Amino acid sequence: MNPDHEDSDRYFDAFDYIVFAAMLLVSALIGVHFAFFAKVKQNTTSEYLMGGKTMGIFPISMSMIASYISGISILGIPAEMYTYGTQFWMIVASESFVSLTMAVAYLPVFYELQITSSYEYLNLRFNQTVRLFGSILFLMKMLLYIPIVIYVPALAFSQVTGINLHLITPLVCIVCIFYTTLGGLKAVVWTDTIQTVVMFGALIAVVFMGTYSVGGFSEVWNRSKQGGRLDFFNFDLDPTIRHSFWTVTIGNFFSWMASCSINQAMVQRCLAMPSLNSARVTVAILVVGIMTLVSMCCYMGLLIYAYYYKCDPITRGAIYKSDQLLPYFVMHIAAIMPGLPGLFVSGVFSAALSSMSTGLNSMTGVIFEDLIKPRMKKPLTESQASFLMKIIVVIIGSICVALVFVVEKMGALIQASGSLGAITAGPLLGIFTLGMFFPCANSTGALIGGITSIALISWISIGTQLNMAQGLIRFPQKPVSVEGCKVDWLTEYLSLTLDNPTSNLDPPFILYRLSYMYYTALGTITAITIGLAVSYLSGSNKGKPVSKELLSPVIHRFLKKGLDLKDENGVLQGALQLKMID
Fold first, then answer.
1. Please, are residues 518 and 456 in contact by the beta-carbon 8 Å criterion?
2. What's this model's pTM, rounded to 2 decimal places?
3. Are 68 and 149 in contact (CB under 8 A)?
4. What domains can be seen in the chain, in order of their start residue?
């Protein structure tokens, strides 16, 4: 099937608006249900933040999948495939190792302690200062991440409706803030579950309709191969290559470890499960779901290339950013399936709203448990605490909406979110790893290691973004063709691009050229290395016993048995000593 690439812009019809409005209405009604009609009201801290710790495997699994596959992935990954090829697809190779490491090494520690905020661990293992530092890093990370999450679906909606994204952004965010504020974790989880179904349905519909439009899977694969898009196993060890097999697998392992194993949103959901085994099952389902969704997004990138392989819409000026490719593609194949654009945008918004609601709920837990509660002279009643947390949701939600307008100025979504997220992800993973795997690490080492790590990654990330903005760092893109475009447009294009000189500039500092996929790994290793060195120089933990429950089960075999158990009141106590190994 030969698509007409010169079609005029297409927009939503009435059926599309109905599909989209239904998704928003269902999300809002779930919040209303848990706030006013559920048997157990959301008026206690445990219910609001932890769902009463009685959540089932299915909704928690769906919630985690929805939370970690945002609109950034749905729009950014296909754009990545179209522009740079399939090497990024290899991130799925490290996902299973992430789930195994999390389930065995990190999750048991949090589940044993039964804490509301993952950063309470830093207080138990180190001190209040390190806990505060970790909490602030997490809040910084989410404030950098959520605006990008909001911007993505607003961009897609604007493209397929013609409505300015500055108008749609506040409207949709109000719905998200509404159900998150009223319904707490249960509303977030069940809304995520519905939105995950919508997201899967939208992507499956686009995959099947797109494959049919191109002429079948074999045609998609052949055109992608001819266009040089198929590039899975680049084993070059050069760390400055944007995406090689090593950068995407090793880099993704550390990035996802930071996102899953110690992230407040993940810990909060896993601890909402009735048992550790149930929590481990949800992690396994999460990985399968993520690998499936990522693979669908990658395949859609090949679909888009196969559809436009003779007339690149970016070069032609039909769109201006690679992140607009998928919505543009959906509108072109919309004639085959009425309502497809509405379903697609609902899917993108579902991914975004689930990520935003998860972020708001987890940020509220951290702000309340780590910043407010320890400083209250008089304990709040459950109703007062619940009301305060709802106010916090509204405030931070409003801040995130305001920051959306800053996101507009960024470049490619995948690299922008990865680079900025690594500023805090690496240091946090390093600090938690220090605490759980190195009994000799002390609070001084953890704090200085974390500060050094965040300074290093901030310097590299910001320096790289500045060099990219100045055109000093450019990554080789896969070739595109315009030979199938209109003849009159092609003549104009050639006249505008003739004699376009290129300048030979000295390459920037090598760390600015380091693949952004390595940022989290570098931040983690820096925090651990500096933390251990400073701990050693400051006397380690001599005279300050560390409870066994604060250490990963992976290293328990190196500890003396019979120590560090909880007393009859469940209070952590006891000394830790390393085995002497001959």
1. no
2. 0.81
3. no
4. 16-35+53-424 (1.20.1730.10), 545-575 (no CATH)
